[in-house]
Structure prediction request, 212 residues.
Amino acid sequence: MKKFSSLFVASTLFVVSLYGQNDQRAVSILDKFSAAATSAPSVSMKFLIITIDQIENTIDSITGSVIISKNNYRLDLPENIIWFNGETSWSYLPAEKEVTITKPDKKDNSFQSRPSSIFTMYKKGYKNRLVEEKNDSYIIDLYPEDIKSDLIRVRLTLSKPSLSLSNFEYKRKDGNTINIIVKEYNLKKVPEPGMFVFSPDKYKGTEIIDMR
Prediction:
C-alpha cells in the first residue's frame, strides 16, 4: 500500500492531459515554463498534497519533496524514498528497512521512466486553456483528449513573472481531487554526486529486494 501511494504521488505530481482546442496564449506560457525547467541543472520542489475524496467524504494531506535532473530524480515522502538514475529505481521503506530495486521499461513515457517528460508532454496529445490571468499568476486548465482517461481536469497555477509552479489541482472521475501546493520551487540547485542512487552505506541493515 505504501509503495502504491508513493507511485501514485509521483504520477499525480506532474501527469497532465488536455481537451478541446489549444489556447495559443496558454501554449506560449507553457512553452516558457517548459524551457526554464528543462534548461535548469535541476528542478527541486517542496510540496503539500491535499487529497479530497468526495465518495468517502475524507480529506488527507501529505508533505514531501522532489528533485529532478534530466531523467534522474529523488522523491522524499514521509513513508517512502525513491531514487532513479535514468536506468534503475530504488524504493526504500524506512519503517520496514527495505529497499526494492527495479528497472523501468525505457519505452515507458511515464514519470517513473522519463521524469523530465513532465515538462514537455503537453506538446503532444494534450489540449489546454488559459482560464485566468491575475496580477501575480496564470491559471491554465488542462483536459484529457482521451475520453477514457481517468482525469476530468488538471489546473496549473504558474507564478508571475518567474513562471514557477505554485499550485497543481488534479481532478479525477473517481471523485478524488488532489491539490498540490508547491511551497518551494527552485531551478538553481546543482545535484550532488550520488543523489539519484540508493547508498547502502547510508542505510545499513536494509533488506535488499532486487526485482531487476
Observations:
- The chain has one domain: 2-210.
- The domain at 2-210 is CATH 2.50.20.10 (outer membrane lipoprotein receptor (LolB), chain A).
- Confidence is low (pLDDT under 50) at residues 14-20.
